[in-house]
């Protein structure tokens, strides 16, 4: 069985990815924010224990602020100490804060969002690479907003665009090492971040502007990650972005 590390695996898309990996026989470790996501973490661990196959090891939940290099180093060291190596790294954790004007985005918020959403990718990959062999897979969570833009989440959307560029550049760096790097760009999806950051009227209309006229569910997004994690299924994919977004046509 493969070993997967998923950031932000306590809820939403991250949880769905952890579960689909576990059901397919992977040993799963995930990060969460201590004191904020403890209950979600406990629920996810319970689900993973129920889903795991007999040949997989016990799942791990690791509290960390992945916006900082030292935390990312400790996360990787913890996983490797327990499992010996990493086969799949999913950079999924993100945060967003709605602001209608660039003038309302403080320096503190800007740094916080960039640390969580893109700095963490650099930090985690840098530390994980020494424990990843040929055939391993790195999967980054970007967003449809990287292609369409979104006025209310300018800093968040900027990080998602950076993730696309990061994915393509890193794929070129690692192709000769046999490590594939891809991304998933979901459209509107029902996750805990939506009600936590959006006003009620935006929640009511979530997904109404896509051709399918609805938001997606995390379980509809997770198979993209499973596909990209599988060397057997996606061996000819690197530097690519999958677009589960309800029918929106974007410039991929």
From TrEMBL:
Tree of life domain: Eukaryota
A Pfam family it matches: adh_short_C2
Record's keyword annotation contains Ribonucleoprotein: no
The keyword Oxidoreductase appears for this protein: yes
Database matches in InterPro entries: NAD(P)-bd_dom_sf, Sc_DH/Rdtase_CS, SDR_fam
PROSITE patterns in UniProt: ADH_SHORT
Keywords from the named record: Oxidoreductase
Annotated GO MF terms: oxidoreductase activity, acting on CH-OH group of donors
Similarity section: Belongs to the short-chain dehydrogenases/reductases (SDR) family.
Official protein name in the record: Glucose and ribitol dehydrogenase-like protein
Originating species: Trifolium pratense (Red clover)
């Amino acid at each position: 069985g493969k070993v997967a590390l998923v950031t932000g695996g306590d809820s939403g898309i991250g949880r769905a990815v952890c579960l689909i990996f576990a059901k397919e026989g992977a040993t799963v470790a995930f990060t969460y924010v201590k004191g904020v996501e403890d209950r979600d973490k406990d629920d996810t661990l319970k689900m993973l224990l129920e889903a795991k196959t007999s040949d997989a090891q016990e799942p791990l939940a690791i509290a960390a602020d992945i916006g900082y290099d030292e935390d990312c180093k400790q996360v990787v060291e913890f996983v490797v100490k327990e499992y010996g190596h990493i086969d799949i790294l999913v950079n999924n954790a993100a945060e967003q804060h709605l602001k209608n004007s660039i003038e309302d985005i403080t320096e503190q918020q800007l740094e916080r969002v960039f640390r969580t959403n893109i700095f963490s990718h650099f930090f985690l990959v840098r530390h994980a690479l020494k424990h990843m062999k040929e055939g391993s897979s790195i999967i980054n969570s970007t967003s449809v907003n990287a292609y369409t833009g979104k006025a209310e989440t300018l800093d968040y959307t900027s990080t998602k665009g950076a993730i696309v560029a990061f994915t393509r550049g890193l794929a070129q760096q690692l192709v000769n090492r046999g490590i594939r790097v891809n991304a998933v760009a979901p459209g509107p999806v029902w996750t805990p971040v939506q009600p936590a950051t959006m006003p009620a009227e935006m929640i009511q209309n979530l997904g109404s502007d896509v051709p399918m006229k609805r938001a997606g569910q995390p379980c509809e997004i997770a198979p993209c990650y499973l596909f990209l994690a599988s060397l057997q299924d996606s061996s000819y994919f690197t530097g690519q972005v999958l677009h589960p977004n309800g029918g929106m046509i974007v410039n991929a």
